[in-house]
Prior knowledge:
Number of helices: 12
Distance between the termini: 96 Å
Shape: globular
Order of helices and strands: HEHEHEHHEHEHEHEHEHHEH
Largest sheet: 9 strands, mixed
Strand content: 15-25%
Helix content: 40-55%
Low-confidence stretches: 1-31
Structural class: alpha/beta
Amino acid sequence: MKSTTGSKLSLVQVLCFILVSFSGIRFSEAAGDQIVLRFAGNLPVNHFVTRGQEFYAKQVEARTKGKVKIEVYPAGQLFSDKDLIRALPNGAVDMAEATCAQWTGIEPLWLMFDLPYFFKDRNHWHRVVDSEVGTILKQEFEKKSGVKVLYWMDFGSSAFASKTPLRTMEDFKGKRIRGVGEALLKGIQALGASPVFLGGGEGYLALQRGTIDAANSGLSSFWERKYYEVTKYISGPDFTLGMFVVMINKKKWDSLPADVQKAMLEAAEEAKQWGRVESEKADTEAVTLLKGKGVEVYDPPATEKARWIQAVKPLAHEFYMSRGGDKAKALLGMVEKID
Length: 339
C-alpha cells in the first residue's frame, strides 16, 4: 500500500513535470514570435539623433503591432562608432546608426557627404539625397558591405569648437583639429591645420587635456557633449552638412518576413522626414544655448569664407574622383544638374 501510494505520487509528479515542460515550450515559442533587434548608436541619450532612433523604434513597433521590438543602445553602449564598421556586417549587432564618414573605406562614393562647402544649402542637400544620386549611393554600398541601408538621417551643420578663435585661415595654421572621415580630414588639412582622427566620444577629453586645439563636429553635438566647458569659440557653421545612416545587417534583413520589411521601410521614410525637421531645430537651439554659456559663434564674412571655400574646392573633384573613379565623376555631374 505504501509503495502503491508512492508510485501514484511519482506518476503525478511526472505528469506535472511534463505539463510544466510543455507549458515552458509553448511560452518559449510564444516569446519567440516577437522579433527583437538591437539598435546601436553613439550620440548622447538626449541628442536628437538618439531620439530619432527611439522614434523609429516606436514607429516600427506600432506598424508591426508589437511583432518587432527594437532595443536602442545609445552613447556607445554596445560599440563605438569606429567599431561598428566591423560589428554590424559581422552580425555582432543587428542595427546601427552611424556617420557616413566611417564607412568610406568600404564605399568611397560616400565621401560626398563630407566634402566641405559642397552642398549649396540644406534644401539642395536633401534634393541630392532624394534623387537618383542617393539611390546609387545606397546600392553601391550594399553591394560591398553586407549591410542594408534603411534611411539617411540628418546630422546637421558641422563647425569647429576651439580654445582660441579661428576667424581666418591663418588662425588654423599649426592647430591640431579632431575630425572623422577622409574628406573632412583633408578639408582640415586644406585650411592649414593638422587633422587628428578621433571618435565622437573622445573629443571632450582631448580638448580638456590639450592633446588637440579644436574639434570638428555638429553644432548640436557641441551642446550635448558639453564642449562649452572646455572651449569658448565656435567657427565656420555649415563647413559640412553631416549625414548619418541607419542600417541593418543584411543577413538579418533577409531573414525578416516580407510584411515586417515593408513596415520597417515605411517607418524609415517617416523617420527620415522627422530627422530633417529635428536636425535644423537642434542646430538653431544649440547655437542659442551655446551663446548662453558664453561661447562665441563666428560665421566668417563673405570675403574670408570665400578663402575657405577656395582652399577646399579641389576636394570635390580631384580628391573625390581619385577615390571614386568614373562613378564619382558621374555622380558629380548629376549633382551639378540639381538646383
